[in-house]
Amino acid sequence: MVLDDLGSSLRGTLDKLRGKSRISEEDVEEVVKEIQRSLLSADVDVSLVMELSDNIKTRSLEEEPPAGTPARDFILHIVYEELVDLIGESTELPLEEQTILLAGLQGSGKTTTSAKMAWWFSTKGLRPAVIQTDTFRPGAYDQAKEMCRRAEVDFYGDPDGDDPVQIARDGLEATIDADVHIVDTAGRHALEDDLIEEIEDIESVVDPDVGLLVLDAAIGQGAKEQAQQFDESVGIDGVAITKLDGTAKGGGALTAVDQTDSSIAFLGTGEEVQDIERFEPNGFISRLLGMGDLAQLTERVERAMEQTGVEDEDWDPEDMLEGQFTLKDMQKQMEAMNNMGPLDQVLDMIPGFGGGIKDQLPDDAMDVTQDRMRTFEFIMDSMTEAEMEYPRAIGASQIRRIARGSGTSEESVRELLQQYKMMEKTLKQFQGMGSDKEMQRMMQ
Ligand code: GDP
């Protein structure tokens, strides 16, 4: 499907960025090119692709990653956000009484989707009914009836009727006890005036709450015109993409979503009534990019952005590299790490740390659990500016005062000072490693 290909190629490109702390313009170009190539070959509209790639390019080069976030993760976060923006949220479908009108060309999968959707609503505890108004396609009645029997949902149709509008009217009456009415309509091989007229007439009788356009995933550029026409005549709120179990790319459907300013409601993944999924953009994109924890990662980046966005004018990370590591620096480091999640995971995300460097550090240096961090924060809050700047000058009486003031123990204060000394020593080792740019970035 559309992003399958994107997933693997983009993963490859992004993996090349692993360990890099700064992203160059060429890196961004390469990522963007991969995205363009995949989307264009999947039939996504050219202007849409250009818009998406421009946004990714601009943001990757202009925005600053928050402290402790590797550049690769930051780009991934941007790509993810822009894709979510392009694909949009799932069409809103409250679990309550409603009437849904299905539109689409013949063979797109309308009839199948109507029964599948009814089945889906029934699993949510609602009572759905399918009303089949397709008098044009021979066999539509039998097919819908049989699928609704299998889905165990109410069905109305008239095998002898030839007036779809009348059938719709009668159907609503006959299924008055149902909560969700799903009205299937006739398609044609192409957009014809009489099809549009017919669906407009049905729409005025049915007065739907939701108009869904059913699109075969194989649809290409034709999606644009179709989406536009149906949107103008009956109003499209969402799209159901069918046959995603096949080899089709589905890019046209994305174009339709954009064209109608709508969203994706359902995905059809087979011929059986249960082969339907409610569209979930977050999970969908994460899965397609082959990164299960993408939503989580992106949340973490967002949180870090919000919380480390507060600039402290007195604190300059560069100072740490010039040998003046103070408790203030340690506090800032801890804040940044706290905002990013468990320390171990955070260290894995820091470029240069994933490999051997982490193992070379003394175990104790890393052994700052979340609880200890919280205690340390209380302690540091009780210290004076001078104590924060010159922790080595802190004596026994000060330790007593700080412990009392922070509601902790003298032992904890000593522990913090011990930790500070260890970090200072570790940092000195790094400084000894010379002008490794990656290390410098890491400390920011
Ligand atoms: P309609 O003319 O729009 O009502 O289309 P149908 O519902 O009759 O579907 C046309 C064909 O596509 C039928 O053979 C369906 O079984 C098949 N079909 C519909 N949805 C899916 C799907 O998600 N996956 C697969 N593999 N086939 C589907």
TrEMBL record:
Naturally occurring in which organism (per UniProt): Natronosalvus hydrolyticus
E.C. no: 3.6.5.4
Gene Ontology molecular functions: 7S RNA binding; GTP binding; GTPase activity
Subcellular location per the Swiss-Prot or TrEMBL entry: Cytoplasm
Reactions that this protein is recorded to catalyse: GTP + H2O = GDP + phosphate + H(+)
Record carries keyword RNA-binding: yes
All copies of domain SRP54-type proteins GTP-binding, residue ranges: 97-290
Gene: srp54
Oligomer status and interactors: Part of the signal recognition particle protein translocation system, which is composed of SRP and FtsY. Archaeal SRP consists of a 7S RNA molecule of 300 nucleotides and two protein subunits: SRP54 and SRP19.
Transmembrane helix among keywords: no
Protein name: Signal recognition particle 54 kDa protein
